[in-house]
């Protein structure tokens, strides 16, 4: 495993067992595989976002119950605050892309890929995400393990859909 990280299968099993969230099935790693279905991957991305939204809502509730003014203030930011506004920009781009209009995907796809890559990079390095994922409030939060694989699948499906 690179960089001592937990392998993807172990993460997927943990997410399913602890949070009841199943990562989308990974396609086999052969060069002859069919391109991922853009609509299915978008739905999977939405499901990952909704799962993390629920986790953040639970963490916000725990912060509000703490009685600490600073923690209560932090609770007001929500997932958009934690993700450095990357989620808002990507959501807008995905709405612009639509489901599967080839011309729209071709035109706006490269910009969206840039947003996906930036969001993924942010999630992988963000201290705020790390703090939330490792919170001490007995509130399971797995932003990185949930959204990074979903972003990777979103990028792969988009790359397979648009022509260079």
Explain how this protein is built:
The protein is an all-alpha fold. The chain is built from 8 helices and no strands. The longest helix has 28 residues. The N terminus is likely disordered.
Protein topology:
Blueprint: H1 8-19, H2 38-65, H3 69-75, H4 78-82, H5 86-97, H6 102-125, H7 127-133, H8 143-161
Helix pairs in contact: 2-3, 2-8, 5-6, 6-8
Low-confidence stretches: 1-6, 27-32
Order of helical and strand elements: HHHHHHHH
Terminal CA distance reads 31 Å
- The portion of residues forming beta strands comes to under 5%
Number of strand elements: 0
What composes the largest sheet?
none
Count of helical stretches: 8
Q: Which class of secondary structure composition applies to the elements? A: mainly alpha
- Helical content (DSSP H or I, runs of 4+): 55-70%
Silhouette = elongated
